[in-house]
Amino acid sequence: MRHVVIFIAAAFCSIASAAPPALTPRHSPVPGGIAVIALTTPSVARPSAHYQSKRVMVIGSPEHWQAIVGIPLETSPGEQTLEITVPNSAPQSVSFTVQAKEYETQRLSISNKRMVDPTAKDLLRIEKETKIIQAALRLFSETDEVPLDFAPPAQGPFSSPFGLRRFFNEQARKPHSGLDLAAPKGAPIKAPAAGNVIAVGNYFFNGNTVILDHGQGLISMYSHMNRINVKEGQHVALGTLLGTVGMTGRVTGPHLHWTISLNDTRVDPMLLFSEQTLAQLSAVNQPAATHNTPTAHE
């Protein structure tokens, strides 16, 4: 992964610097990516950071705090601002640069017309469910320890990568906000990291779904499941069985749609894989935009 230098506003050049290499999540300051920003001003207490008015994860120690920033897919290339509050100090601003990235286009044919043009009754259900899902994805829970080196939640090739510009029956829809893993119906889905189950439900587009909170605004969502094996409020460890792969909701075949949300921003789940994990997966898990596996709508 190519690392891009973060440029700091001159007035606060002593506050932050570019992230060191070989970190998880991997530094990728592009739309749909993650910026890892080192905060160099010493502070015994954890600084508070906000990006686009949303609370941002800060991890590390008094000698080495880091802001982990999710960048929305719709962000234009150029300078962005991170607001930093250090206890007993005046608020400060840090600038970083978002680089351009182009995502491929995918055109899909959906036989169930309601999944493309929902009825009025469907829209009422969708509105209610969207509020539940959005509330879960916006959650920011205070914790010192956040798991950032994830394992794959299911075994199988990555059939549709993150960020695809999508057309369903030639109608433009939102970009693909997750990563699809092609696996047969009934294949196990395991927690890729420790977390708490904050939502379980059956939703119009997403089908059977589980949402996990990993701490400090890092949320993961698992959609189109066949069976769900966990309950809301349950703590899960790495490798806990969440359920099985299915084809519920808007799909053309069985697969897992895996979403990662960071500071209420959908980001590429691949950035939570270490370089070692990526090397191990490369033989079977090559991203491809040609598979016909539409996923959850947000």
Can you tell me about this structure?
The chain is mostly beta strands and 298 residues long. The chain has two helices and 20 strands. It has helices at 120-137, 275-281, and strands at residues 16-18, 34-39, 48-51, 54-61, 64-70, 78-85, 92-98, 105-108, 158-160, 165-168, 171-173, 179-181, 188-190, 195-203, 207-215, 218-228, 235-236, 241-245, 256-262, 265-267. Strand 6 and strand 7 (92-98) form a beta hairpin. The protein is globular and about 50 Å long. Residues 1-22, 167-172 and 286-298 have low confidence and may be disordered.
Which SSEs are present, and which pair or pack?
Elements: E1 16-18, E2 34-39, E3 48-51, E4 54-61, E5 64-70, E6 78-85, E7 92-98, E8 105-108, H1 120-137, E9 158-160, E10 165-168, E11 171-173, E12 179-181, E13 188-190, E14 195-203, E15 207-215, E16 218-228, E17 235-236, E18 241-245, E19 256-262, E20 265-267, H2 275-281
Parallel strand pairs: 8-10
Antiparallel strand pairs: 1-2, 2-5, 3-4, 3-6, 4-5, 6-7, 9-12, 10-11, 12-19, 13-18, 14-15, 14-17, 15-16, 16-18, 16-19, 19-20
